[in-house]
């Protein structure tokens, strides 16, 4: 399949449409994570539909001192990757096509959710993201738009914008794609030296440590609920053979069987990995680590049930990286 390279919305609108149009928005420098998004879009659009990949480095979402100038521009390579993954069109508009007359005077506000975590670290970032997403949704007119779950807060805000402002488009989140060693794929990974990349692995390792702690807690709670809250329960926990249960079975037996595991313990397990990485050479400089409700990105507390996201952001050298992992607390897990 040969993907058409289009520079204007007029040219895109002139194409005949039969089935569904699925759009994947990128800033270029495509990698396997983007290819996964495109392949998923192809499955959703079907043989009769159309897959459009946008390539646009949006200046509005880069703050002062960020890497707008050095952000990789690899359009020829991007076109090949998009073609191989199943795209019909690569829409790569120039800045004056997206922002005629210069930067827009009217912009989308991300609201309170856009000021937390990533938004607090990068003021105005999500206003720029939502503004360009809104523009590109209008310019490409899709039936469905796909975004990676790696940018969890961005995905949550796009979903909220589409719902709150009545955009007639379906939003689909696609799971994070990782390297074999666990590092989440990112266009910024290419900035890392070999030593920096080894340190950067702490982000995913911390998330996995939090996930493992959560899984152990949930398994322990589930088994604890299966026996009476008596000495017999303590003995049953000791017999499980799990280190955490055996270490303090009597304490657990005296506790009321909980429906959830402790979010604070999950964060602690992840933070220990990050603290170790802060002592490496080069060190990891943690920005934030939090366990949040994906509906509004407020931090959850003990007793929470339902879907949550463990999110982390850190800097290694001059490169800032983010990652996250979804978790389920309570009876639904």
Outline the structure in words.
- This protein is an alpha/beta fold.
- Helix content is 40%, strand content 18%.
- It contains twelve helices and nine strands.
- The protein has helices at 9-13, 32-45, 75-85, 95-98, 118-121, 125-140, 152-164, 194-224, 231-240, 243-247, 249-254, 263-277, and strands at residues 4-6, 21-26, 50-55, 89-91, 144-148, 170-174, 284-292, 306-316, 319-329.
- Strand 2, helix 2 (32-45) and strand 3 form a beta-alpha-beta unit.
- Helix 6 packs across helix 7 (152-164) and helix 8 runs antiparallel to helix 12.
- The model is unreliable at 249-260 (pLDDT under 50).
Shape: globular
Q: Pick out the low-confidence regions.
A: 249-260
Q: Hey, roughly how much beta strand do the residues contain?
A: 15-25%
Gyration radius (Cα, Å) is 23 Å
Query: Could you tell me the mean pLDDT?
Result: 89
Major sheet: arrangement of strands:
1-4-3-2-5-6
Biggest beta-sheet profile: 6 strands, parallel
Q: What string, H for helix and E for strand, traces the elements in order?
A: EHEHEHEHHHEHEHHHHHEEE
Number of separate strands: 9
- Multimeric state of these chains? single chain
